[in-house]
Amino acid sequence: MRVAVRGDGIDATAALDPHRSGDLFGNVQISLTGSSAAGAGASHVALRNYRLTLPHERSWASKVDDPKATALLVALATLGLVAIVLAAIRGWPPKVQIRIGAPRLTIAAAVVFLAGNALLFPLGGHPFDFGDEQLYAYVSRTYGTVHLYYLPDVVSLARIWGGVPYVEAAFPYNTVVSYLFTGIGWLNSLVFAGGGAFALNSASLGYVIKSVIVLFGLADAGLIYLIMRELK
Fold first, then answer.
1. Which terminal Cβ of the chain has fewer Cβ within 10 Å, N or C?
2. Whole-model pTM?
3. Closest Cα partner for 214 from 111, 134, 126, 125?
4. How far apart are CA 132 and CA 152, in angstroms?
5. How would DSSP label each residue in 6-68?
6. Shortest CA distance to 54 belongs to which of 37, 30, 34, 81?
7. pLDDT value at 23 more than 80
8. If we measure between CA atoms, which residue out of 133, 131, 187 comes closest to residue 159?
9. Residue 185 has what pLDDT?
10. Could you report the per-residue pLDDT of 106-157, keeping only the tens digit for each?
11. Do the Cβ atoms of 70 and 77 come closer than 8 Å?
């Protein structure tokens, strides 16, 4: 870590090498502050041309920029899509068994599930989890998916946690979840912001996140039902 301050009559540098860093990059809240010791009279301090370069969050994911790795990823993804298409073709047309009364009961249960959760949307906004989720959707939509592994580390703790600095807001998930939050950010932008920028703590973003969670829960229930039916 290198720090340089230059200006009118000022030229100062400092450095911190890996051997002296200690727990600097561990699970510790890090704050960067600037201060001045005022003498007699009034003083004014301004920080300009500020630039911060961050290391990648290697504890959660590794950034790969290799043509071979990219080619392998595309090849494996293509094979996976081919396998899905072949499985769908072999199972077509699907064998559907309809029991009298079952579809209506299923639809009614789904409606009750969705409506009940929708009524609870105004609740469940604890900043420890939900503030993070809003931050992840905002960062991925505004700056890009890859920045989820950089920018959350330097977000103002006071703003995210409502004035209480619980813990740093690092993104601790894998790439699949990062794409999920990117999709949530884009969905909120398209539906509520006309495809443009949106506020980090907007109510609409919170409702979109909760809607996605509820839909995943409904899909999980369907999968559980299908598995249990196969197991009789």
1. C
2. 0.63
3. 111
4. 9
5. EETTEEEEEE--HHHHTTTTSS------------SS-------S--------TTT------HH
6. 30
7. no
8. 131
9. 93
10. 888 889 999 999 998 888 766 667 878 888 999 999 999 988 888 887 776 6
11. no
Both structure tokens of 132: 């993070």
H or E, element range at 141 = helix 132-142
State how far the alpha carbon of 150 is from the alpha carbons of 121, 169, 191, 195, 205, in Å.
Answer: 30, 11, 27, 24, 21
Token pair listed for 120: 């609870």
* Three-class secondary structure of residue 22 per DSSP: coil
**Per the structure block, which two tokens stand in for 208?**
């979109």
Average pLDDT over the chain, rounded to whole?
80
Rounded CA gap, 224 and 230, in Å?
10
Query: What pLDDT, in 10s, does the model give residues 39-89?
Result: 777 777 777 777 777 666 656 666 677 899 889 989 999 999 999 999 888
**Is the sign of the CA dihedral 160, 162, 168, 169 positive or negative?**
negative
* Half-sphere exposure at residue 3, Cβ-oriented, CA atoms within 13 angstroms: 7
Tokens (6 digits) for 84? 């899905």
Number of H helices, E strands in the chain: 7, 2
Residue with tokens 């007699």: 40
